[in-house]
């Protein structure tokens, strides 16, 4: 194979991986990323037009969302037999250029790599209460191990879950009192939401759920049926790390992706709870649960899906041509 042919194959693989990264989770399904294939590399940019300027003024959840897409792109490339190097925040003059991926060679495709790539397409958020079936300890260990070394997971004790519940309630009250946040939520869950993004009624619970830790109040009822279950068997965890800067939040998204894909592969439901992170005072309370040893990025609810009702549909996705710039590919 000549060099030109190899370069064309790499560029095509990068464009395909960028499109596949669109399956990544993002806050309110905003999908706030844009990709560009340039010569021998794939560049990831933040799309500020999709930032939640009221809920996420610092852009931390945007960065986490983009980090999840970055990890998804690597998973897609691995499933096609490509090894890559990742360069994060490579240019200070371009703060919205979040990462570059460069192919470094070919490698045999493993069954595990293919499974993870397939898992990207079935991963989704199921906000229904989980079943009463407890999570096996060995399953939790596998999910924890999937998270990268730079970002860690703290499983909360029953007492800490009660403190989390109090903090989540306070955060919900604070955000409910902010008209701009309510308007933003209305936009991303209503009929005016951008085509191919946001949260349709079919993925939102039909009524308030009776759970220890309250989920987000979307300000409207959805059509997702829920049973009479509770979250007694749910496990609550905190993603946290040492850095409270753009690089740290980007890596948090990568860790979220890696852990969530592994959880999905094992049949474990994952629900991200960011409300307590979005309010400064409750995020500080969450940090106290970590004994101030790290910065919390996100709360996760883990559990076995309740089989009483069928799960929600997948949230819509933007077409690849809107988020991937791949001239000549």
TrEMBL record:
Residues 308-329 are annotated as: Disordered. InterPro entries: Nitroreductase-like (IPR000415), Nitroreductase/BluB (IPR050627). Transmembrane segments: none annotated. PANTHER family: NAD(P)H NITROREDUCTASE RV3131-RELATED (PTHR23026:SF123), NADPH NITROREDUCTASE (PTHR23026). This is Nitroreductase. It comes from Micromonospora luteifusca.
């Amino acid at each position: 194979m000549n060099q030109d042919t190899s370069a064309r194959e790499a560029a095509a693989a990068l464009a395909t991986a960028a499109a596949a990264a669109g399956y990544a989770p993002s806050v309110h399904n905003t999908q706030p990323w844009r990709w560009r294939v340039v010569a021998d590399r794939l560049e990831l940019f933040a799309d500020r037009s999709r930032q939640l300027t009221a809920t996420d003024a610092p852009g931390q959840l945007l960065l986490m969302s983009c980090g999840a897409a970055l990890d998804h792109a690597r998973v897609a490339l691995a499933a096609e037999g490509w090894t890559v190097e990742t360069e994060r925040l490579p240019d200070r003059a371009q703060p919205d250029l979040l990462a570059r991926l460069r192919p470094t060679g070919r490698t045999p495709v493993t069954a595990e790599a293919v499974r993870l790539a397939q898992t990207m397409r079935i991963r989704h958020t199921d906000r229904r209460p989980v079943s009463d079936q407890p999570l096996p300890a060995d399953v939790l260990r596998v999910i924890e191990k999937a998270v990268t070394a730079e970002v860690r997971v703290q499983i909360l004790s029953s007492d800490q879950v009660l403190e989390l519940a109090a903090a989540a309630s306070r955060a919900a009250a604070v955000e409910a009192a902010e008209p701009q946040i309510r308007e933003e939520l209305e936009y991303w869950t209503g009929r005016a939401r951008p085509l191919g993004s946001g949260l349709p009624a079919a993925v939102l619970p039909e009524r308030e759920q009776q759970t220890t830790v309250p989920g987000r109040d979307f300000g409207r009822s959805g059509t997702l049926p829920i049973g009479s279950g509770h979250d007694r068997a749910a496990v609550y965890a905190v993603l946290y790390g040492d850095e409270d800067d753009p690089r740290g939040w980007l890596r948090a998204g990568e860790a979220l992706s890696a852990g969530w894909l592994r959880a999905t592969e094992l049949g474990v439901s994952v629900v991200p709870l960011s409300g307590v992170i979005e309010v400064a005072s409750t995020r500080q309370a969450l940090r106290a649960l970590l004994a101030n040893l790290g910065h919390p990025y996100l709360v996760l609810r883990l559990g076995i899906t309740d089989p009483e009702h069928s799960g929600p549909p997948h949230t819509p996705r933007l077409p690849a041509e809107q988020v991937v710039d791949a001239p000549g590919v």
